[in-house]
Amino acid sequence: MVAAKAGIGVMVLNAARFLATDIVFPGIIVIGAVAFVFDLIMRRIERSLVPWKGKV
């Protein structure tokens, strides 16, 4: 987020600088939702590519 010049992270950082919480909170929620969906997708890919993971 620090090295970016555009995107949601920059929007959140700029809004935080001006105490615009009406922009900061939705931005954080969007980042969290994207991370959650990405995690679900990666788990499905892992389950299909590495079926032996987690089996004793």
Order of helices and strands: HH
Please report the number of helical segments.
2
Give the rounded overall mean pLDDT: 92
Shape: elongated
Strand content: under 5%
Please give the oligomerization state of what you see: single chain
The description of the largest β-sheet is: none
Q: Summarize the amount of helix as a percent range.
A: 55-70%
pLDDT < 50 stretches: none
How many domains? The number is: 1
Spatial extent as radius of gyration: 17 Å
Tell me the number of strands.
0
- State the secondary-structure class: mainly alpha
Gap from first CA to last CA: 39 Å
Brief summary of the model shown:
With 56 residues, the protein is mainly alpha-helical. 70% of the residues lie in helices and 0% in strands.
Considering the chains and any ligands shown, give keywords for the structure:
56 residues, single chain, elongated, mainly alpha
Write the SSE topology.
Layout lengths: L7 H10 L3 H29 L7
Walk me through this protein's architecture.
By secondary structure, this protein is mostly helical. The chain has one domain (about 10-50). The chain is about 70% helix and about 0% strand. Helix 1 runs antiparallel to helix 2 (about 20-50). The longest helix is centred in the middle third of the chain and has 29 residues, at about 20-50.
